[in-house]
Design a protein that fits this description.
Number of strands of chain A: 12
Distance between the termini of chain A: 68 Å
CATH class of one domain in chain A: Alpha Beta
Shape of chain B: globular
Distance between the termini of chain B: 68 Å
Radius of gyration of chain A: 23 Å
CATH superfamily of one domain in chain A: Thiamin diphosphate (ThDP)-binding fold, Pyr/PP domains
Number of strands of chain B: 25
Strand order of the largest sheet of chain A: 2-1-3-4-6-5-11-7
Number of helices of chain B: 20
Number of domains of chain B: 3
Low-confidence stretches of chain A: none
Strand content of chain B: 15-25%
Helix content of chain B: 25-40%
CATH topology of the largest domain in chain B: Pyruvate-ferredoxin Oxidoreductase, domain 3
Structural class of chain A: alpha/beta
Strand content of chain A: 15-25%
Largest interface: A-B, 64 and 75 residues
Oligomer: heterodimer
Structural class of chain B: alpha/beta
Mean pLDDT of chain B: 95
Low-confidence stretches of chain B: none
Number of helices of chain A: 10
Order of helices and strands of chain A: HEEHEHHEHEHEHEEEEHEHHE
Largest sheet of chain A: 8 strands, mixed
Largest sheet of chain B: 7 strands, mixed
Radius of gyration of chain B: 27 Å
Helix content of chain A: 25-40%
Shape of chain A: globular
CATH class of the largest domain in chain B: Alpha Beta
CATH architecture of the largest domain in chain B: 3-Layer(aba) Sandwich
CATH superfamily of the largest domain in chain B: Pyruvate-ferredoxin oxidoreductase, PFOR, domain III
CATH topology of one domain in chain A: Rossmann fold
Chain lengths: 346, 626
């Protein structure tokens, strides 16, 4: 039995509802922003976790999505650009009784805060990171982001962007994350299921959320959701087939993973998804089925969900193992040290 | 043949141990200091080492030294110049010779005085043979050969055998200055407990060094420095970094808060991280972050969660933490930032001391971001200053910057153990209940409701039912803490944040002036580690029959209420600083008094004899004017 991500968080005595998690602050995202759907789903989902409202903390960085904490009636901090994982680490390490979330975006998490993201994942701090990926800078009005496709024309790249984007799922897997998933703002049921699983995972969980920015990057995920596109659903224990069964993911004899037509594929070679595989290679290979340019194809679901000891639990264990019973007396002994001498007034 | 050397009493001695950075000079100095402190002398030390872990062997940049001043009276500096130089190789001799006054004692290891090694440092002739050291009292001994001989019965490589030469030298010096040896013997037994051969060899070399002094006639006299009179009590020696760590633990314990340190290794602050990391027995949580920003960020998170968040660093790290400190100003959360200053700008001289981060501490953030700033004046004072930083941070819900420096961090002095039960408790006063009514007339919690006395905001920690709230870096509406872009509100909040910090002045003592004659016309005002040189120089000035007043600032923001009055009471105010006059500039701007700035930026403490001469000149010039 692996520990639940919410172990240690006190349970609510009365059932809570979405309304309990809705703050009195007016939501100020642009009309049609994908953030609304994620907020609404989150408020409903967190009420179903069965924990006390006052024991949830949401820490965000800077960007449109980072306004999120203001709208959820829990404890929260809207911090500074890119640093939310570091701040959340301080919260999680000192307080095992809190359910800690980080809300961030593609610029916040992958550009200015890239360092904190990879280290929070590597350490496996018990926090859940929601990475809202709209593939653009919204708050600063439309510059390309580290997930924008190559050649993206924006105000800061009038001749097209020149740098290769990050694939956040590949990055998280490379950073040793124990829980990595992707979901999309337009699929409430999928969003709910992935966020719940992420909250219950003990250790760092990264959820990439494809989120549409109607103002600066509208329809970035439209092709993906259209009949021409392919949203590859990953379901634990099931063969990976999509496009109404027309396509599947196969593993070739040389170990390569690719998309094939189901009709002609060797059924033995169709990959059965196993999110609990210890080795991240297959999860990484699946993450590479995501197109880096205009998105026509991308897997969604839980890529990896494996238990690893959580950093904050280990920190507390180290202290509990040696903590002196009488702290005041122990402090006096430490301060006195080994080598002291007595002086008389002369 | 044993001989009995004459024992001469001395009041004070300054010894400098110098060698290659791999020769163990810091360890040798530390041990000699421990022996001397436990004997009851007053001590002050100055370690001085290169930033490179191992610069090329035998070269001038690779020289590491440790200076110890000990006396039978109360001393405040490690001494400008050594009386005795222990040089373990030609480079150590060359690098330190210019500091040694004529008649000084040189104890030198001759083993490395080969043509090749002399050439490495640009000496064409061997100074031990060409008469160039005739103004000194030279003891040229093959310390390496003697040590190697003393450990020949152990199964050691040649390299390991020769590495015991520092213990041989320590043994010899321990004999020469009549030091107790039990402490060093038990230290070696513990340090090398897992390597019995190395342990036994080091002990043998140490004893052989002691016996060498006793049995040979190389030294006609040995010296005795009697214990110094000190206030009754139990003492230990302490360095600034250790005292800072203990002060932080004590402050958190007095506040009943979990101490959380988020830190990134940086010279010369890392020893605070090291010590706090060892103190899990005292419940201390430490987090070695991925960078300086994560260090302060995690500390802010910990404070938000109800712990006492602390981050420790040096100048370059302070530069990186600026934005996050601004967040703590805006969110009004307790946070202690320790800056162990070093020579800058940029990487500067990482192992050398300086006080040039004062302006950075006071003003180095975007926007109007007032932060209380404190500075420790001595190694032991780091303890009290750290507790004061915790007290202000918790009481006023504010980040507090504590300035130390490389000299305080590594230097050691005797410290009378504090009576911990006499240190007052710090009251976090967490919010536990609603404190307002909202527009609809319902009970509400407003995180920016303030204590009318301190202007501290209500601090409710996550997990407190009914007080759920959000804070952040965006401007807050007064009281509710909601996001606000209202012009009048921003003006009000900016002034309120300033008023809160300014108001701390009611909670800090007036600055005290020391002027034994009561007739001084010149005031020397210092801050931080210049306390030692200023105090020592002022004593000498007074001994010369002149009057001089001294005062020292611990609180640099806000400054004590009576400071302006004190400054205006003197004809001349001299402010010695290890920077280009930062405090002097601030005092002139704030109090409209003329300040005579006394600047030194050599990466070393200000020379007390230089300061003495300059102060006498100032005082005499003033006398002649009238």
């Amino acid at each position: 039995m692996t520990a639940n991500g919410l172990a240690g968080v006190p349970l609510a005595l009365e059932p809570l509802s979405k309304k309990d998690y809705t703050s009195d602050q007016e939501v100020r995202w642009c009309p049609g922003c994908g953030d609304y759907a994620v907020l609404s789903t989150f408020q409903s989902m967190v009420a179903t976790l069965g924990i006390k409202r006052e024991n949830t903390v949401i820490v965000s960085g800077i960007g449109c999505s980072s306004r999120f904490p203001y709208y959820v009636d829990t404890y929260g901090m809207h911090s500074i650009h890119g640093r939310a994982p570091a701040i959340a680490t301080g919260v999680a390490v000192t307080r095992p009784d809190l359910n800690v979330w980080v809300v961030t975006g593609d610029g916040d998490a992958l550009s200015i805060g890239g360092n904190h993201l990879i280290h929070a994942l590597r350490r496996n701090v018990n926090i859940t990171i929601l990475l809202f990926n709209n593939r653009i800078y919204g708050l600063t009005k439309g510059q390309y982001s580290p997930t924008s496709e190559l050649g993206k024309v924006t105000k800061s790249t009038p001749y097209g962007s020149l740098d290769t984007p990050f694939n956040p799922v590949s990055l998280a897997l490379g950073a040793e994350a124990g829980f990595v998933a992707r979901t999309i703002d337009s699929d409430r049921a999928h969003l709910t299921q992935v966020l719940t699983a992420a909250a219950q995972h003990r250790g760092a969980a990264l959820v990439e959320i494809y989120q549409n920015c109607p103002i600066f990057n509208d329809d970035a995920f439209a092709t993906l959701k259209s009949p021409d596109g392919a949203l590859i659903q990953l379901r634990h224990g099931e063969p990976i087939v999509f496009g109404g069964g027309r396509f599947c993911v196969v593993r070739d004899a040389d170990g390569d993973i690719r998309v094939a037509e189901t009709e002609t594929a060797d059924p033995e070679r169709i990959v059965v998804h196993d999110e609990t595989r210890g080795d991240p290679s297959q999860a990484f290979a699946l993450s590479r089925l995501t197109e880096a340019g205009v998105l026509r194809q991308a897997p969604i679901g839980i890529f990896r969900r494996v238990p690893r000891p959580a950093y904050d639990d280990l920190v507390r264990e180290q202290i509990d193992a040696v903590r002196a019973e009488d702290q005041a007396a122990a402090l006096a002994a430490v301060i006195a040290g080994q080598d002291t001498w007595e002086a008389d007034e002369r | 043949m044993s001989h009995v050397a004459e024992q001469l009493p001395l009041d004070r001695v300054v010894i400098r141990f110098a060698g290659d950075s791999g020769d163990g000079m810091q360890l040798t100095g530390d041990r000699f200091t421990a022996e001397t402190a436990s004997f009851g002398n007053d001590i002050a030390t100055l370690p001085n080492f290169p930033a490179e872990i191992r610069a090329p062997q035998g070269t001038l940049p690779g020289v590491s030294s440790f200076q110890l001043h000990f006396a039978n009276f109360d001393i405040v500096t490690p001494g400008d110049v050594p009386d005795v130089l222990v040089a373990m190789n030609p480079a150590a001799l060359k690098a330190n010779l210019r500091d040694l006054p004529r008649g000084g004692v040189i104890i030198v290891d001759t083993a490395d005085f080969t043509k090749r090694n002399l050439a490495k440092i640009g000496w064409a002739h061997n100074p031990l043979e060409d008469g160039s050291l005739s103004n000194y009292s030279v003891h040229a001994l093959d310390l390496t050969g003697l040590a190697t001989g003393a450990v020949s019965q152990f199964d050691l490589t040649r390299k390991d055998a020769s590495r015991t030469k520092n213990m041989f030298a320590l043994g010899l010096l321990s004999w020469l200055y009549s030091r107790p040896t039990e402490g060093t013997l038990s230290f070696l037994s513990e340090k090398f407990a897992k390597k019995p051969t190395i342990r036994d060899a080091n002990i043998a070399a140490f004893k052989a060094g002691y016996a060498y002094g006793e049995t040979t006639e190389a030294f006609e006299v040995r010296y005795h420095v009697a214990p110094a009179p000190m206030k009754k009590g139990r003492y230990r020696q302490i360095s600034g970094n250790l005292a800072t760590a203990y002060g932080l633990i004590t402050g958190a314990q007095k506040a009943g808060l979990q101490l959380f340190l988020g830190s990134y290794p940086i010279t010369p602050a890392s020893d605070i991280l090291h010590e706090l990391s060892r103190r899990k027995d005292l419940g201390v949580m430490t987090f070695q972050a991925e960078d300086e920003i994560a260090g302060v960020g995690s500390a802010i998170g910990a404070s938000f969660a109800g712990a006492l968040g602390v981050t420790t660093t040096s100048g370059p790290g302070m530069a990186l933490k600026g934005e996050a400190i601004g967040l703590a100003v805006m969110t009004e959360l307790p946070l202690v930032i320790v800056n162990v200053q070093r020579s800058g700008p940029s990487t500067g001289m990482p192992t050398k001391t300086e006080q040039a981060d004062l302006m950075q501490a006071l003003y180095g953030r975007n926007g109007e971001a007032p932060v209380p700033v404190l500075a420790a004046k001595s190694a032991a004072d780091c303890f009290d200053t750290a507790i004061e930083a915790c007290r202000i941070a918790v009481t006023y819900r504010t980040p507090v910057i504590m300035l130390s420096d490389g000299y305080l961090a590594n230097g050691a002095e005797p410290w009378r153990l504090p009576d911990l039960s006499a240190i007052p408790a710090i009251e976090p006063g967490f919010a536990t209940a609603v404190n307002a009514t909202d527009d609809a007339g319902k009970d509400a919690f407003h995180p920016y409701e303030r204590d009318p006395e301190t202007l501290a905001r209500a601090w409710a920690v996550p997990g407190t039912p009914g007080l759920e709230h959000r804070i952040g870096g965006i401007e807050k509406a007064a009281r509710t803490g909601n996001v606000s872009y209202d012009p009048d509100n921003h003006e009000y909040m900016t002034r309120t944040r300033q008023a809160k910090i300014d108001g701390i002045v009611r909670d800090i003592p007036d600055i005290a002036v020391e002027d034994p004659s009561g007739s001084a016309r010149v005031l020397v005002l210092g801050w931080g580690s210049t306390f030692g040189p200023i105090t020592a120089a002022a004593r000498r000035v007074r001994l010369s029959g002149r009057a001089v007043a001294t005062a020292h600032l611990r609180h640099l923001n806000p400054m004590p209420a009576n400071l302006g009055e004190v400054l205006r009471a003197y004809d001349k105010v001299v402010v010695p600083e290890m920077n280009l006059g930062q405090l002097a500039t601030i005092l002139q701007a704030r109090y409209l008094v003329e300040i005579s700035s006394y600047s030194r930026v050599r990466g070393l403490p200000i020379s007390l004899s230089e300061l003495e001469v300059d102060l006498i000149a100032e005082i005499d010039a003033l006398q002649e004017e009238n």
